[in-house]
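Quick one: structure for this chain?
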Amino acid sequence: MDRIIECVPNFSEGRDLDKIEKIVDSFRGKEGVKLLDYTSDKDHNRSVVTVIGEPEPLRDAMVEAIGKAVELIDMTKHEGQHPRMGCVDVIPFIPIRGVTVEDADRIAKETAAAASEKFGQPFFLYEKSASAPHRENLAKVRQGQFEGMAEKMKDQEMWKPDFGPDTIHPTGGVTAIGARMPLIAYNINLDTPQVEIAQKIADRIRHLKGGFRYCKAMGVMLEDRGIAQVSMNLTDYTKTAVYTVFETVRMEARRYGVNVLGSEVVGLIPVQAMVDCAEYYLGIENFDPGQVLETRL
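Got it. Here's what it folds into:
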């Protein structure tokens, strides 16, 4: 592949493995498309897929996946810890090689146009593709979630979809789609069942509350483990590093007599982000990703 775009769609299903496999099948066996990873979380009731491809084949595979999600996921019955507004909650397209943000933006819009026409799913453009400043931030677009979105969209001046019907799909909700730069989905688990503590810590580090500029965060409860989690998206790891948020969360947790149990990456992470962590924790100077064995293979 000479021109590569990455797509990381988030589907509002993390419990029914049969449905998840049927959706992910949309990316298998397609020329010009490669499925890299997919993970499901029962507490969030959400699956995150990472796929790369040439622009047009990737667009077509994504349209197929949207159709399958609209068919299989009923948002009126969906419950989970993660905020969500649609069966396909968000679809970011990320330029990787031989393409620009403008190319990713074009593919996002073509995907939304085709899927809205075929399946009646409405779409908001967000991030680099946003049609208005108040639609750039996904959290603001998603505010109200599925249950409150129909009422929110009655304000057509502010919340008329960029593609598709003027209100939600009755079972599919609404989807955010657009071009953005790479981000890291990163979670930190705490040894407490008090989700209020996780939320207070999240409020200290998230940009909207005066925290780190490139950090989005919230507190969630992992019911099956009985612990709280600080769940984050780092939208520019070169300016808000993984080790920075980890150490800050650990420091803030101590204020409440809470410890960090560990952390996790959802999906894929740029190797440079891990190199930055190695430099910080190991004191390695001038380390280059080219020194990692696997990058030479």
